[in-house]
Amino acid sequence: MKHLNLILSLAFFSIGFQSFAQTDKQTTIKIVTDKNYAFVANTATPMANNDINRILSTMPGSQAGSSINLSGSQYDVKVTKDSIIAYLPYFGRSFSAPIDPTQGGIKFTSKNFTYKESKNKKGMYTIQIETKDVVRENYRFTINISTNGYASLTASSINKQPIIFNGYLEELKKKD
What we know:
Elements: H1 2-14, H2 25-33, E1 37-46, H3 50-56, E2 62-63, E3 67-69, E4 76-79, E5 84-88, E6 106-110, E7 113-119, E8 125-131, E9 140-145, E10 150-156, E11 163-171
Antiparallel strand pairs: 1-3, 1-4, 1-11, 2-3, 4-5, 5-6, 7-8, 8-9, 9-10, 10-11
């Protein structure tokens, strides 16, 4: 597991960032500490085999290295103290598929989850979220967050190969 985290951390830093919205250091600290943020996905990088990568490279919006551009698609994961709401696509090998094709991807609302937060000396956060109440399958999200709000999210489950999303954090608006 330590090797996988190291590989994922290296992948986070080796993928070039494009110019997207970001937060300043104080905002990043505030929204992560308050658990009031959305991870907005800009790219998806499947961690699948060569056959799947070859197919994905022919898709519209695909970039070199099988990274798929998601900009403007509004895929995100909303994190609050009492819920996790995920709306992400999935590209890769799945070992079971839903009967209803509209139920594909990584889409769920969880109210029963574990949330572990750590921060390194340079101020980067690592968040680990594990859902426990999702009907079809539970997920483990590892979110690495830089001080300026750029982030990577690795999604894994028993039924799917892992996938990495790159994007940024934004503050959730308070409901009135």
